[in-house]
Design a protein that fits this description.
The chain is of the alpha+beta class and 227 residues long. The protein is built from four helices and nine strands. It folds into two domains: 128 residues, Fervidobacterium nodosum Rt17-B1 like (Heat Shock Protein 90), CATH 3.30.565.40; 81 residues, Alpha-Beta Complex (Actin, Chain A, domain 4), CATH 3.90.640.20. It has a six-stranded mixed beta sheet, covered by helices on one side. The chain has a three-stranded antiparallel beta sheet with strand order 7-8-9. A hairpin with a 3-residue loop joins β2 and β3.
């Protein structure tokens, strides 16, 4: 029988001391599963304090829903696709808090799975929330309605691709310049917007998810959210 161990461990790594809270207190949660053929190791953030309790719960629900989907997907994969007795399948989730101030929480969660072959595959998901409301912010939400942020981001990203062309696929620039291409994957750091691509989108596997840091000043004319 598979041995299932499900636990929630908490370790405070950030405590806000501001009189008017514009950041959140965050704990670390974990889910672990071990069987003869599979190992799942999941770490995810749990907010326990912020400007609005309902907003904090809303953020936690959004994150935990995606965590649970990954966990359940792996259990189903084990049930239907893993040959009996074949070991070595792994699922791993880790996260990084990129920004926790100015009423904004921005983080990345990386989902990794190995189900056979030369190597596993990772997917990085960026989450940005408004702490006071609990709403998840998407890239368009950062800018004025008519601001051409996508064109400006394309210009900045293509410039870096050209400067470091040996790191990217030959058609990386063309991929970004396609008329129907629009940026969606991002996260925030203080004073910087970071846009990124998936594994194999524009570069070899060893580069992971290529990231491009865009200083806030370049976008300042169109921003309606301060970071």
């Amino acid at each position: 029988m598979p041995k299932k161990h499900l636990a929630l461990f908490f370790a405070i790594f950030f405590i806000s001391t501001l009189a008017f809270a514009s950041s959140a207190t965050i704990l670390g949660g974990s889910i672990n599963y071990t069987s003869r053929t599979m190992e799942i190791d999941i770490a995810y953030p749990v907010l326990i304090d912020g400007t609005n309790k309902k907003a904090i719960q809303k953020i936690n629900n959004t994150i935990k829903r995606d965590i649970d989907n990954f966990y359940n997907y792996f259990l189903e994969y084990r049930k239907h696709y893993i040959p009996k007795g074949r070991p070595g399948f792994q699922g791993n989730v880790s996260y990084v808090i990129e920004m926790n101030e100015k009423d904004l929480l921005s983080l990345t969660i990386t989902y990794y799975e190995y189900t056979g072959g030369a190597h596993g595959i990772s997917e990085q998901i960026g989450y940005t929330f408004e702490l006071s409301s609990g709403n998840r912010l998407f890239l368009k939400d950062l800018f004025k309605t008519d601001y051409p942020y996508n064109d400006i981001l394309k210009e900045q990203v293509v410039q870096e691709i050209v400067q470091n062309s040996s790191d990217y696929f030959q058609d990386a620039k063309d991929h970004v310049l396609e008329n129907d291409f629009s940026f969606g994957s991002f996260y925030l750091k203080p004073n910087n917007l970071v846009v990124y691509f998936g594994v194999y989108d524009i570069a070899p596997y060893y580069l992971g998810s290529p990231e491009f840091i865009i200083p806030k000043e370049i976008l300042s004319e169109g921003l309606i959210i301060d970071f």
